[in-house]
Model the fold of this input.
Amino acid sequence: MDRLLPPTPGRGATRNDRPQRFNLPAREQDGDWLDAREGVDGDAPPVRTTVSVERPKTILTRNASPDIPFDRSINAYRGCEHGCIYCFARPTHAFHDLSPGLDFETRLFAKPDAPRLLRAELSARPYVPQPIALGTNTDPYQPIEREWRITRSLIEIFHETGHPFTITTKSDRVLRDLDLIAPMAARGLVAIILSVPTIDPVTARTLEPRAPAPARRIAAIRALSAAGVPCHVSLAPVLPQITDHEMEHILEAVAQAGARGAFFLPVRLPHEVAPLFRAWLDAHHPDRAAKVMATIRSIRGGRDNDPDFFSRMKGQGPWAELLRTRFRIACRKLDLNRERLVLRTDLFRPPEGDQPRLL
Done:
């Protein structure tokens, strides 16, 4: 049954609807406290986070999308406790008969076999190295990384083999692995992308409730840059009528912290993300909800979401063009995006395995 909930402190989604895209039967109440929430006297307890083990057969995900600048990625976790309401990865929870709403940010999956699988794939012949992207769907430094340390184990393998990689994260927890990242940066093997869609702490508390505060991410950019790690910034997504006015301020803040480049994306609302986002607007911005959605539809060709290659990442129409113009002008003034980052692939050596290399 669908769970329509009031805003939950510390969580992003205000709904927990069952997935409908795969013709799965409605599930009976399973004893979770949320099923009896209305009968609880007083305040409901906080929504707990659970972690299940997922054991995939492979860990590298390949893509041939013309919109994405990498062809392989790793996601150590499924679901993300940061709870960003706009996250385009939310619909993947429907594959497990779980809600892209609160389930996505509270019922998580970890892949502890990821380092073993990565070592096997890097050892396979003929493997041709190209940068591997970490954090393309869910954040590799979400809170559960503190206990599971899967991301660090992957970086240890990259360090051992001289394999290039990138990290996209909203968390200053990336600094915990600076002992591995900084030496690799000196060899041209790593770049970090910090996601900073807002620097307003009030907006951030509802937009991405369990991600580290924007000021901590700016501080992480400064620390990474001081350590010689090339750091770029993602202003993704830009939310019209909510965060778009911050664009120049964000770029100025990250440039002063040492970021070398930046990019932005207008908000995307695929599949179940659209109704979740609408419910979030009704809960947190009821005064402008209709205006926000009208602007998004103008950027997306009259739809809540544009799934087409070449246009889905850029948007269309006057609003999208205005954002692009503002972004280009600001980057030019701040000397951002002056150079194209290229990571080295010539230093790669396959894992040693049981027998050490002779040379």
Q: What stands out?
A: The chain has one domain: 47-333. The beta strands are 50-53, 61-62, 72-74, 77-78, 107-110, 132-134, 165-169, 190-195, 231-238, 261-266. The CA atoms of residues 135 and 168 lie 5 Å apart. The domain at 47-333 is CATH 3.20.20.70 (TIM Barrel).
